Amino acid sequence: MINKQTIKKNIAWGLSVILLFNLFVFEIPAAYAASGFEFDEYIDLEAKTAGTPFNLYIRAYDIDTGNTLTTFNTCVSITNTTASITPNQACFTSGIFNGSVTITRSNVADQITAIASGFVSGSSEPFQILPDTSNVFLGITNGNNQMARVATQLVTPITVRAMDRYSNPVSSLGVIFKVVGYPSGSSGYSLSINSGMTDSNGNIATAFTLGNKIGTYIVTASLTSGLATPLTFYENATAGPLFNLYINPILAIVPRGAQQIFQTSGMDTYGNPVTPTNIQWSVTRGGGAIDNNGVFTAGDTLGNFSNTVRAEATFEGIGSIASVTVINEQGDAGTGGIGEGGGEPVYLPDIEPYLHQHGQKYDGQGTLDHIVVTPNVIQSETNTRHPLTAIGYDKYNYTVSDASITWDLSGDLGELTTKGGSNVELVLRNRPGNGTVKVTAKQGDITKTAEVILASRPSPGGYFFINEIKSPQAAGTPFDVTITARDNSDNILADYKDQVALRDSTGTLIPTAINEFTGGIWTGKVTVAVGKKNVVVDAISKGMNGVSNTFEVTGDPLKIAGASGSGTIDQSILATLQKVLKEAVFGKSQDGKEVLKHLAAGIASGLGLLGSGLGMAWMAGRGLEAIGRNPLAKSKVQVNMYIGMVLGLVAAGLSIFAAFIITK
After folding, report:
1. Is 318 in the same domain as 250?
2. Does residue 598 have a pLDDT over 80?
3. What is the CATH number of the domain that holds 512?
4. 417 lies in the same domain as 476
5. Average pLDDT of 306-327?
6. For FRET with 539, which of 68, 143, 222, 632 sits at 20 to 30 Å CA-CA?
7. What share of the chain has pLDDT > 90, as a percent?
8. Quick one: pLDDT band at residue 343, thresholds 50, 70, 90?
9. Is residue 12 a part of any domain in this protein?
10. What residues does the V-ATPase proteolipid subunit C-like domain cover (predicted)?
11. Within this chain, do residues 34 and 117 fall inside the same structural domain, yes or no?
12. Lowest mean pLDDT among 168-182, 431-445, 457-471, 565-579
């Protein structure tokens, strides 16, 4: 049981420990318990500048007598309202601190406070800390990388902040806004203010209205004076709602029973291309029938069917019409009656301008009339790649296969992997802006062109820089790749740790994902499994993209399982086969005769099936080729093609029957 004497001893020990702690840790004698700190009373006479040292005077004194504590020679903590003072200790000599301090955060009423155990804390008079206007720069506060329809005002104003090197807002600075980039032919874009002064928070904002053309609009903000780097905003305009729907062709000359493909295109109210969706096709005034894909089949009634084909965009309720003239396959009026569309009989002199002078090939059939590029608008982030396809058509909207196609990129946005062919790939580099891809199709002396509208903008999170990959690389052989995560100011994102997806032009890249970034950089080996001339590697993550240079991959590592290096048949197999054949031909045994019989049956059926198969394949190929050259004669060609295929099947059946008879 603890007695009173023990309790008294424990209390005494505790008080001793507290006293020693105050003496040796805080180094402040107990005699200073009724003391305080006094600051220079003139500290508030003039404003200080953030980041610029100024003199600070503090006196330690006895509160009762007001005398300076000349024996006070220790360090105490000092802090200020914004907690940005350095140093954060004041070391006294004979009760006085007289030294230099720096405060980096601006404040209209800042105070410095000295704190020490056993002292009454003391604070200075409030004084002002001004931002350092000798080194001012601009920062983006809001409004970058927005997207809206053409001719509309962006929801979020473009806002910038003027700051000093310590991120203190700087007020009353002049800022100029300017539209420095816009799509070709655009008009109507505007800023609510073109210049102004920053407010007390260092901010200034302007509302931006997009122009009437789709693409990227570039707005800069810069100081009216000084050397601060201008800020760049990228705003993106998309097409408005469908306003006009067009049918191609608007007038079609179709032989009865033949087919005509109709296509649609759309525009918004400012002439920007819009891809029509949910098109409903119908024939309203006779002449034939049309399916959901716009393929019109002419009926048996000859005549002019005005405004009979109708296409309607069901969501927008916008439609368009086209007319059809149904003619005789031989190019004359035939015996058909008048079309239900209220047209008149068709006679040869009326349609001669639409016909060739010989045969049943009609005017414009197989002749390049227009070219269609898919997609015809690309609005995307930088460091991405996009496949493009161009197809030439005749006036009946059938493919023209003998047209040569070339591509040309304008605008410093990236490059095309090739300059010719129906299919190319566009690689957008880290250069935002506007441009076009011009597509030219030539067939003899005929030249048709089309255009792809381009608009690229920076990725919001930055981009991946992929070091140059040497060319060529061998398929199936690992090679080194280095990927660096950067922000849009080209600074390395040293703390980047997210997972990144990898892919390439061949679709055979391994690995397909990486995440082991060190200091914002990943270095490792990748493998492409198949050979290809123009290959690029993509790095993709949320809000960030990256594309490598174009390089070649040679060879193909894929091997056929079981294939020998020399391509020869094993000698033991040849010997066995030779022995069996010799016994079958020259031997007198019953087994030999059976072998010979089955061998003959196999040859008979095999040759018959091979011949009929080759014949049917040849017939189908030539038939499809004929339809491609002359789509209007499709019905006749198909009948002859099917007859030939039936005869081929009969021949195949006879060969199997012959083999069956031989084995009996």
Report:
1. yes
2. no
3. 2.60.40.1930
4. no
5. 92
6. 143
7. 58
8. very low
9. no
10. 599-648
11. yes
12. 565-579
Q: Do 255 and 632 contact (CB within 8 A), yes or no?
A: yes
How far does Cα 477 stand from its chain's mean position? 29
- For residue 52, pLDDT over 60 is answered with yes
For helices 571-586 and 590-629, angle between their N-to-C axes, nearest 10 degrees: 110
User: Which one, of 351, 302, 326, 310, lies nearest residue 254 by Cα?
Assistant: 326
- Using DSSP's 3-state secondary structure scheme, residue 431 falls into coil
pTM: 0.68
Domain boundary among 188, 213, 238: 238
| pLDDT at residue 300 tops 70 | yes
List the CATH number of the domain containing 631.
1.20.20.10
Query: Closest by alpha carbon to 43, among 129, 113, 125?
Result: 125
Q: Could you tell me the residue range of the domain that residue 89 belongs to?
A: 25-130
- 300 and 337 housed in the same domain: yes
Q: Distance between CA 638 and CA 514 in Å, rounded?
A: 54
Among 356, 370, 365, which Cα is nearest to 447's?
370
Whether residue 357 is found in the same domain as residue 262: yes
Is residue 143 one of the residues assigned to a domain?
yes
Angle at CA of residue 204, ends 200 and 205, nearest 5°: 145
116-136 pLDDT, tens digit each: 988 988 999 999 999 999 889
581 pLDDT band (50/70/90 cuts)? low
DSSP, res 361:
P
Instruction: Classify residue 81: in a domain, yes or no.
Output: yes
Task: Report the length, in residues, of the chain.
Answer: 664
Evaluate the CA torsion angle 180, 181, 185, 187 in order and state its sign. negative
CATH code of residue 88:
2.60.40.10
Same domain, yes or no, for 233 and 248? no
Phi, psi of 147 (to 5 degrees): -135, 135
Asked if 264 and 355 sit in the same domain, the reply is yes
Instruction: Please report, as a single letter, which amino acid is at residue 158.
Output: I
Chain-centroid distance of CA 28 in Å reads 67
Residue bearing the bigger pLDDT, 90 or 357: 90
Torsion of CA 52, 57, 63, 65, to 10 degrees: -170
Mean of pLDDT values over 23-28? 43
Q: What is the secondary structure of 48-81 as a DSSP string?
A: EETT--EEEEEEEEETTT--B-TT---EEEEEET
Tokens of 388: 């493009």
Beta strand segments in 279-362, E: 279-283, 288-290, 295-298, 303-313, 318-327
Place of tokens 């000093």: 164
Model confidence band, residue 214 (pLDDT cutoffs 50, 70, 90): very high
What does pLDDT average to over the chain?
Answer: 84
Q: What is the phi/psi pair of residue 439, to 5°?
A: -110, 125
More confident residue, 356 or 616: 616
Distance (Å, whole) CA 198 – CA 195: 10
Query: Nearest CA to 544 among 427, 379, 382, 378?
Result: 382
Task: Tell me how many domains the chain contains.
Answer: 6
Residue 19, domain member (yes or no): no
Model confidence band, residue 310 (pLDDT cutoffs 50, 70, 90): very high
Give the model confidence (pLDDT) of 244-258 as tens digits: 999 999 999 888 888
Q: 440-478 b/e with 16+ CB inside 10 Å = b?
A: bbbbeeeebebebbbbbbbbebbbbbbeebeeebebbee
Domain boundary among 363, 395, 419: 363
On the question of pLDDT at 83 being above 90, the answer is: yes
Check which CATH number belongs to the domain holding 312 and give it: 2.60.40.1080
If asked whether residues 308 and 412 sit together in one domain, one would say: no
Q: Classify residue 235 by burial, with Cβ atoms within 10 Å: 0-12, 13-18, 19+.
A: buried
Higher model confidence: residue 126 or residue 567?
A: 126
